[in-house]
Amino acid sequence: MIPARYQASRFPAKLMQDLAGKPVIVRTYEAAVNTQLFDEVYVVTDSPIIAEVIHGINGNVIMSKNQHESGSDRIAEAVEDMEVDIVINVQGDEPFIDSVSLEKVIDVFQKDVDKEIDLASLMTPITDWEEISNPNTVKVIVDNQNFALYFSRSPIPYPRDKEVEATYYKHKGIYAFRKRALMDFQKLPMLTLEAKEKIEAIRFLEYGKKIKMVETHVTGIEIDTPEDLERARTVWK
User: What contacts 212, CB < 8 A, 6 or more positions away?
Assistant: First the structure.
């Protein structure tokens, strides 16, 4: 499932920006299909403009009926009446998604025979301090079993002691849910930390849920800003 809003707050209409001859949302949809990991791929949107371009490539579209605070809320509405076990949320601004990383997330559930894990997501190590301190880059810290402790737009952990080495992780915008967990998610009201940071994964932590993080070294480019789009265009060439 690819949630797609037209009016993104940081970069309006970013999903319709040109990336090597096609809109960003089309590149993301095609990348998801080309992994060949999914039974079905859908774009979930409230925008007739986005729906039209996906229909134009014979893609699958589900139109949202309601306004939603997050992509996961939008997807929960879309899958409510579907008979599915696992739902993958791929952000619409991730045209460089890769099958290796997605397989790692899916594998979490294949190994979870007791069905104890409700949600899995991806993280990648980052070393550039400019990226670590950039509020557009969501960071995550984990425990010794790679369950998420917290997500933030601030640098975490804070480097008070410069002599202590720590790995910084960037949270990549891909989530894998058991359907029941996704349906529970939409019923939970947004609390203070999620509202403050504008990071939907925090909602699970605030309600005591566990998020299994999977490390990947495939970085890609998430298009949050016009500068990201220019980098994506350069890489695509």
Answer: 108, 117, 119, 120, 121, 146, 147, 148
